[in-house]
Design brief:
Blueprint (H helix, E strand, L loop, with lengths): L1 H18 L11 E6 L5 E2 L5 E8 L2 E2 L9 E8 L16 E3 L6 E4 L4 E10 L15 E5 L1
Parallel strand pairs: 2-9, 4-5
Antiparallel strand pairs: 1-3, 3-7, 5-6, 5-8, 8-9
Organism: Paraburkholderia diazotrophica
Protein name: DUF4399 domain-containing protein
Keywords: Signal
């Protein structure tokens, strides 16, 4: 009985260690930016337009690839940064580019919209410190 309790306690500690493991370190000074469109730019409504992702002082690697100083892009549309100690959601406001893409085509309905990039590690968790772009506003007309 004592062995079973000890094994259960060790398993619980191991799972705690995994659950609370720190995020992947980001290289010093790393930052993401949106190269296109520009802040305040008018983009076509209900038609695809290009969004170009920029990154400095770190590299891009696909999801599932653990390599120092790398991550992959996530485009946030009309939302704030998610909690940086959790995986980045995957939905219409949090687009994942896990194949290592550095640009995409998106469509937006008429109106003002915000765009922001957030880098995620091989498991879609933001780095420490988080690497993200300035939030820009585009006007879809």
């Amino acid at each position: 009985m004592t062995r079973i309790v000890a094994a259960a306690a060790l398993a619980a500690l191991a799972s705690l260690n995994i659950a609370f493991a720190g995020p992947t370190p980001a290289p010093k000074g790393a930052y993401a930016y949106i190269g296109y469109p520009n802040d305040g730019q008018v983009v076509p409504a209900n038609k695809p337009f290009r969004v170009w992702f920029g990154l400095r002082y770190m590299g891009v690697a696909p999801k599932g690839v653990k390599y120092p100083n790398t991550g992959h892009h996530h485009l946030l549309i009309d939302t704030d940064l998610p909690p940086v100690d959790q995986g980045i959601p995957s939905d219409r406001q949090h687009l994942h580019f896990g194949a290592g893409e550095t640009e995409t085509m998106i469509e937006l309905p008429p109106g003002k919209h915000t765009l922001q990039l957030l880098m995620g590690d091989e498991n879609h968790v933001p780095h420490d410190p988080p690497v993200y772009s300035k939030k820009i506003t585009v006007i879809a007309k």
